[in-house]
Structure formats: C-alpha cells, structure tokens
Amino acid sequence: MTTSLRDAARRFTGGALTAFLSPSTRLLGLGEPTHGVEAFLELRNEVFRHLVEHEGYRSIAIESDCLAALAVDAYVTDGTGTLDGVMSGGFSHGFGASPANRELIGWMRAYNQQRPPHERLRFYGFDGPLEMTGPAGPRPALTAPHHYLAAHLDLAWSRESLDELFGSDERWTNPAAMMDPTQSLGRTPEAKELRLVADDLRALLTAHAPHLTAATSPDEWWRADLHARTAAGLLRYHAGMADTAPTRIGTLMCLREAMMADNLDAIVGREARRGPTLAFAHNRHLQRDKSHMHFAGLPLQWWSAGAIIGTHLGDRYAFAATTFGARGSDVPPSDTLEGLLSTLPHARAVIDPARLAAALDRKLTPRLPADHTYFSLDPATTDQTDAIVFVKDI
C-alpha cells in the first residue's frame, strides 16, 4: 500500500503538476480549500511563474471582482496607477491585503516592463461585484456600455432616463436585503426595465462589433462588453435577492457561478491567440462535480463555474484541487483522504488521482471540517480532478 501510494505522488513543482495535464489545456483551474491561507497563494504564484516561463501562459484570473480587476490589469500591463492603489481598490473579498497577492502583482508588473504589448501578462477577476453583504448596484456596470455605445450609435435611452430607473444607489446595496427578500429592489418595475436595457445594450454591442472595434479598439469593445455582461448578471442576481421562495439561496449560488463561468468563457476567448489561462479560486468554484451544502436547515446543490465551463471546453479545461493535512490542532483522521496523504514524505506533493484510486484498498471517509471556512475534498469524486495538490502542514 505504501509503495503504491508513493507511486501516485511526486514532490510538488510546477512541472510535476503540468505533467498530469492534457497538452490541449487552455484553462487550468487551480483550487484552494479555504481562503485566507497564504501558503496556497504562494503555491499559486509558484505555479503561475512556471506556467509563464515554461508553458506559454499569458494570463491569470482570480476569484475577485471582474470590474475592480481592470485597474489591476492596467497597472500590470501599462504601469497605470500605483501598487498600493491597486491593492487597496482592485480586489474584492479583502484579497488586496494578502502579501502573496501583492507579490503576484509586483512580479507581473516587473515581468511586463521590458516586453512588447502582445507578450505582456494580463490580470483578470472572474467573480461578479459581489460581497458577503450583497451585490453592488448596477449603475457603474450599465452606464459604461451605454456611454461607449452613445458615442457611436443613436440609443433609445438617455443617461437621464437611466438615472431615473436607478434611483438611489444606497437602495440597491441595502445589506438587509441579503436575508430579507422584501428589502430588495430586484423585482421592481424599474429593475425589470433595467434588465431589458442591459440585454438590449449587449445585443447592440454584438450587432455593431465590426464598426465599434474599428472605431475604438478590440480592447475597448471587450471592456464595454464586460460591463454589459456584468450589468446583466448583477440585475439577475438582484432579482434572485427579491425571490421569496425557499430555494432563494440556492438560486443565488447558481447565478454567481453562472456569472463566473461567463467571465471565464470570455477570458479564454480573448486569450485564445496568446496562450492558456490560469484560474485560481476556491475548489468549490472550479470543481467538476456538483456542490452540496446545508444552509439554514436546507440542502443546497449547484454546479460550479468549473463544471459549467468544462462543458464548453471539454478536455481544454483542467482542474487541480488543493487540500491540506494539519492546521494547528486540526489533524485529519487516518481514514480520510487527507490523513492518508499525510503519510507521504513530501511537505508538498502532487498526486495522480487515477493511481491514487488504484492504490486504495479501503473506502475513505470525508474529513469533517473544523470550521465553516474549509470544505474537504470528497474522496468519492477525486476521479473528476486532473491532479491533487497536497500541503502537509499549513
């Protein structure tokens, strides 16, 4: 058993990880089992450097606000702004405070400084403008494509008419709406009208793309489309916030994953001629199997962004899940996947899921998380990963 398990594992390096991946991979999802642990972000940085220097990758997308990330991308590609500024304003979920994220952005900027534009690394966020307290208001996302289109087309809506529909921004971001659907504006007549406007603006962007890209640039068109896509997603999410059905929270999870998948799809399309993309997020956002959770006594199920984008990309999508052994007094039992992997000699290892399955002579039980921030890997679904990265002690 020990020899077979060791045959399934290698000491972790970027090259050891990519050896498990298909040469056709265009999007590599690298998951983390919990947020806020620098060891996983440092590992991601190491992987990304290897991918850039040896595998032709030219972009990274992380679980952060897709619109805020535009400022980070402008800094790493062209030096616009300052490192302090983009770390404080270019990330959501508090991720800008991470030293490893700061190291990543600094390294990307340094890498790009001596390279022509077509070789420069790009930075993306692929989450929506969503925080635990609720979604952002739709005004910034919707007015950006309106302004872009109004410079070239006659539109049916003026900026003043949109402002009347938006009303007060504070009403859209009322934190009470997160738990009380009656506090949400998402299904008011004004919100429904804005959803139609967002849909029509996106259609105009598509219909007039040849003229618009020639009059501006492909990059400006892409940013306008990103804003329009985000506006439509936000308005759908606000409508979900106003839902009074028991399935409300599950619906919101589905809508968020769909927004993430749409963003990843657009990123892969934009980067198609430049190279593959690394996507970094929680395992639950990138896994291929269905996600499960109990919330307020209700069983919830939803498909992740990785599962959704995987249906589009097929074998061009690869997923590497990350997990860990000990975290202080939280030591995994020996009958769990993490307990078994803790017997490996490597402080960090990459495991072949197929060889791991062949090495098992007993059924493993899922690890019970010590707190709500961590979701353990399900041993029954490891066959849906392309690789497992294991960190023995965090």
TrEMBL record:
The family database entries (InterPro entries) matched by this protein are listed as: Emycin_Estase, Hydrolase/PRTase-associated, UCP036794_erythomycin
Pfam families recorded for this chain? Answer: Erythro_esteras
Q: What is its EC number?
A: 3.1.1.-
The protein's enzyme class: hydrolase
Highest taxon listed in the record's lineage: Bacteria
The Gene Ontology terms for molecular function here are: hydrolase activity
Q: Which PANTHER family match?
A: ESTERASE, PUTATIVE (AFU_ORTHOLOGUE AFUA_1G05850)-RELATED (PTHR31299)
Q: What is this protein called?
A: Erythromycin esterase family protein
